[in-house]
Write a structure and sequence with these properties.
The protein has a single domain, classed as Immunoglobulin-like. It has two helices and ten strands; from the N terminus they run H-E-E-H-E-E-E-E-E-E-E-E. Strand 5 and strand 6 form a beta hairpin. It is globular, with a radius of gyration of 15 Å. The strands form two sheets. Strands 1, 2, 3, 4, 7 and 8 form a six-stranded antiparallel beta sheet that branches. A four-stranded antiparallel beta sheet has the order 6-5-9-10, with no helix packed on it. It is 15% helix and 45% strand.
């Protein structure tokens, strides 16, 4: 299995587990139970500690791994012609904001695996820090955009 396939499989499995709230660790819990829908599009998102990604996969995609590093994963699907939809490219403007109001921009990196397209952005956090995420999503070729907002608390590994 290629590194790309392993990363895609991990992110897909992680998203399913997170959305189902089946994972017992606090950092695996994702605040969205279903995708954000606007127009003919659905936006799936999750955020998690970067240590959930294996070192070789992180290296392949130039993702910074560490006990205080996290990743946001976003995928956009056009569901106009089918329930499961079709992956589409998108542009993003995003940021994190901590409880002190400090902001940090999110820079998304596109990952393609077969028909799947998803985007990852790294961010830093402190132990037990709650971050607010705000990401403006605009599907390629569409005049529609939607801002996805959620909050999540993160925990450093080993604390």
């Amino acid at each position: 299995m290629s590194i790309r396939s392993r990363l895609f499989s991990f992110l897909l499995a992680f998203s399913v587990i997170s959305v189902a709230h089946a994972a017992p660790v606090p950092e695996a819990r994702v605040m969205n139970d279903k995708p954000v829908r606007f127009g003919d599009y659905e936006v799936f998102y999750s955020a998690f500690p970067s240590t959930f990604i294996q070192p070789d996969i992180a290296k392949t995609y130039d993702l910074e791994r560490g006990p205080k590093n996290g990743l946001v994963n976003i995928a956009v699907r056009n569901v106009k012609n089918s329930a499961e939809g079709k992956a589409v490219k998108a542009t993003f403007e995003g940021k994190t904001v901590n409880l002190l109001g400090q902001q940090s921009a999110l820079k998304f990196k596109e990952i393609k695996e077969g028909d799947a397209i998803y985007y990852l952005a790294g961010f830093r956090f402190s132990h037990e820090e709650m971050l607010k995420f705000s990401v403006k999503v605009q599907p390629e070729g569409s005049s529609l955009s939607q801002t996805v907002q959620f909050s999540q608390t993160f925990y450093e590994d080993g604390k």
